[in-house]
Amino acid sequence: MNLGFCSSVGSSALRVRRARTGASQREQILVPGGQLRRCRLEMQESPSETEAKVEDAADVKADETASKVSENVGNDTNEDEPPPSTFYQAVTQAQEATEKALEKGFRLLEVEFPPLPQSMLDSAAIGTYTVVDANYKLVLDYAKRWADQGKRVAIAFPDAAEKDRALENSNEQEEPYPNIRLSTLQDGFKGTFLDRLLTSGVEQDLSVREDDDMFVVMSASCQELPQVEKLCIKAGERPVIFFNLKLDTLRGDLGLPAFPPKDLQYRFLSSILPVYYLRQRSYSKTVPQPPYVVNYSGALYRAFPGKYQVLLDTSDGKFTRVETREERPALGEVRDVMTKAMGLEAVTPAPLMGFLRKGATSRTWWEVDSDKEESNIWRT
User: Fold this and answer.
1) Hey, is 209 helix, strand or coil?
2) How far apart are CA 67 and CA 63, in angstroms?
3) Whole-angstrom Cα distance, residue 362 to residue 141?
4) Bridge partners (DSSP) listed for residue 276
5) What global pTM score does this model have?
6) Mean pLDDT of the residues in the chain
7) Integer Cα distance of 271 and 376 in angstroms
8) Which of 321, 240, 254, 306 has its CA nearest to residue 276?
């Protein structure tokens, strides 16, 4: 395995830099056999959104580190489904995983994957509404699977303002596709803002109707999670899918001032099954020899009913599955697995520095408090 690092000289240290491409961004995918390869995702982007300056950098050989990566990273031939190569494949895999979970009787389901190329999500030029619009297109494609089967699907937005934006993108149609309707977390009124303002006797828009067969929640924030819980209660035994809500991020805000209490995780969020999960992570670690700072990245991936897969970017255009687990690993444990696979666990300058870097624990409060949870489904 040939692993190279780019470094540039700063005022007192070497920094590792990775050059980015231009308008067409390269994304990471996995192909059968356990390896990931980079491919181009066809996305329509404006030059202002994707333009990145490529800085000159001197190539630095890191033979010892590269050798350790080669020794530690293995090719797991586990038959778990590999990650997607395109957004179309991601939606298709999410649909298949959801179907399998529904067949087993699960009702509250989480679907999580990047709605845009990671390079765009990391860019300051990409605003919140760009992400919301991308998620809306994806959720429509996702919901068509059941709409084509004759089931009624309600896409629930946090409020009327978010729904109005979706209506603008759907030519003011309450049903952008047969059997798919736009709704909100709470009861409201049909039509656009001007319709509700200028027209008397506007028809009420219920968040939950008797003819709804399933619900897909998108764009909800942490403050809106109590309304999401109420929607699930009103839905009864009908499925509710949490689509790209970044629940791990929302959990971190629970218990803070002006946010819902932690009890929401214990009684509600703990009962949501991750049926399709793809989260990319990037880390860096200092080493006592050139290049001094090593950047490495990977992903945690799962497609129900498969296992959780920890994937490592070997920086030569491929990913390798380094570990699989039956139970969802903590995010800190994912980092530790990648660090060990890179061979960097043994190059920490001193035990004290290692402790200061990692802290006393690698788990968050919601990953630790298993005894307070009413369900452990979110861990399975």
Assistant:
1) coil
2) 6
3) 37
4) 111, 303
5) 0.74
6) 77
7) 7
8) 306
User: Hey, what are 149's tokens?
Assistant: 């089967």
Number of helical (H) and strand (E) elements in the chain, helices listed first: 13, 16
Strand partners, 11: none
Beta bridge partners of 5: 60
Q: What is the crossing angle of helices 128-147 and 87-103, to 10°?
A: 50
Residue with tokens 């050139």: 290
- Residue 93: which of 2, 29, 157 has the closest Cα? 29
Q: Per the structure block, which two tokens stand in for 128?
A: 């919140």
Q: What angle do CA 240, 332, 117 make, to 5 degrees?
A: 60
Q: Residue 366: in which H helix or E strand, if any? A: helix 365-368
**Whole-angstrom Cα distance, residue 18 to residue 12?**
19
The pair of structure tokens assigned to 83 is 């990650």
In tens, the pLDDT along 190-199 reads 655 556 565 5
Closest CA to 132 of 95, 168, 162, 89: 162
